[in-house]
């Protein structure tokens, strides 16, 4: 293989594909990046045991002197980032790689591309289209709530449902839930659990302006085995997580708000962040919220370091006064996912879920389980 291409274009394609690569690859070949010529230009692939990202450089931006393929070692990306202008990348039959520009020459050894795993075969006929901006928002509003330990693998991912002309995303670690639901012209494709790590990396390479093809690929049994997302710059594939996702939706249907306080998000965030500075010294990041018609009070204690209190003026209040102890870090995380200037906090009863929402148009809600404390 021999190609001539701008170093910044190649570096960008390599960087996008590298986001699929695991920090601890299960086999050595997965530490590298597959570069191959195609009828439309060149593609660059990075892969882990679960996800693959293929990025593209179109044929009008690359000169293909000799067709072929090679797996570049991890260090190649760092080297190409440090080169300027047009470069020539020449690969011998033994996968010895020479990279040359006007004033520099690098020789490195690559891997056999036949050993690199191919992306899964998918059915491109069943897809829905959404904007990059919307997909980024869906990921942002849910992915932070997944479990980080793999004791229950299915809750280390985000559950995505395309059903009844709606798209729904949900994440939980059993102590909190983040969900978003929007109307969308989709067929009843079903549900799939997508690994959170892949979605986090995917969000970083999506542009707001991207038109995104989004789909599920199924086995003959009807089970979804791959989720795929395609733009004109890259394709993302993720094998779904096995297991049955908790029936959080049914649990949420039983939750009814008894009292609701609405506050300015900026004021509430500022006060909570101050209290959290002390509260994070405690193991559970615990803060106490006490709400009434006249004020919302936030209290927190530091581990042998003191205590802090802040008051926020409610915009509206409905129901009876209430007090509840929550994990401050969970609240801070969800506040970052709410775009509205005003948030509502719904109290549903003693030792039951507390619901946080932004504006109704966001279509999202966030639930935090309270701590058991004495009144």
From TrEMBL:
Residues 130-247 form the DNA polymerase III beta sliding clamp central domain. The keyword Transcription regulation does not apply. Signal peptide: none annotated. It is found in: Cytoplasm. This is Beta sliding clamp. Keywords: Cytoplasm, DNA replication, DNA-binding, DNA-directed DNA polymerase, Nucleotidyltransferase, Transferase. Residues 261-365 form the DNA polymerase III beta sliding clamp C-terminal domain.
């Amino acid at each position: 293989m021999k190609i001539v291409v701008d170093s910044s274009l190649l570096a960008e394609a390599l960087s996008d594909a590298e986001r699929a690569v695991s920090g601890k690859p299960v086999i050595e070949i997965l530490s590298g990046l597959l570069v191959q010529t195609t009828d439309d230009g060149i593609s660059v692939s990075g892969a882990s045991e679960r996800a693959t990202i293929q990025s593209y450089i179109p044929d009008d931006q690359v000169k293909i002197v000799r067709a072929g393929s090679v797996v570049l070692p991890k260090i190649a990306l760092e080297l190409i980032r440090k080169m300027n202008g047009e470069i020539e990348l020449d690969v011998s039959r033994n996968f010895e790689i020479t990279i040359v520009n006007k004033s520099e020459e690098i020789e490195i050894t690559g891997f056999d591309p036949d050993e690199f795993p191919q992306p899964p075969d998918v059915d491109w006929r069943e897809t829905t289209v959404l904007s990059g901006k919307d997909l980024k928002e869906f990921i942002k509003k849910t992915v932070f709530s997944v479990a980080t330990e793999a004791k229950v693998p299915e809750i280390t991912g985000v559950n995505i449902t395309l059903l009844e002309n709606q798209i729904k995303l949900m994440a939980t670690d059993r102590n909190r839930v983040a969900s978003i639901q929007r109307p969308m012209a989709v067929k009843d494709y079903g549900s799939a659990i997508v690994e959170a790590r892949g979605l986090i990396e995917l969000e970083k390479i999506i542009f707001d302006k991207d038109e995104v093809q989004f789909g599920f690929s199924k086995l003959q049994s009807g089970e979804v085995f791959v989720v795929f997302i395609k733009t004109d710059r890259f394709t993302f594939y993720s094998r779904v997580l096995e297991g049955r996702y908790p029936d959080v939706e049914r649990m949420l249907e039983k939750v009814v708000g008894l009292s609701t306080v609405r506050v300015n998000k900026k004021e509430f965030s500022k006060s909570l962040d101050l209290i959290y500075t002390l509260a994070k010294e405690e193991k559970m990041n615990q803060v106490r919220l006490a709400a009434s018609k006249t004020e919302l009070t936030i209290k927190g204690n530091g581990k042998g370091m003191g205590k802090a209190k802040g008051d926020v003026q409610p915009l509206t209040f409905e129901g009876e006064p209430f007090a509840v102890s929550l994990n401050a870090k969970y609240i801070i995380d969800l506040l970052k996912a709410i775009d509205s200037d005003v948030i509502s906090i719904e109290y549903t009863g003693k030792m039951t879920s507390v619901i946080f929402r932004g504006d109704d148009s966001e279509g999202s809600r966030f639930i935090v389980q309270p701590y058991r404390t004495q009144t």
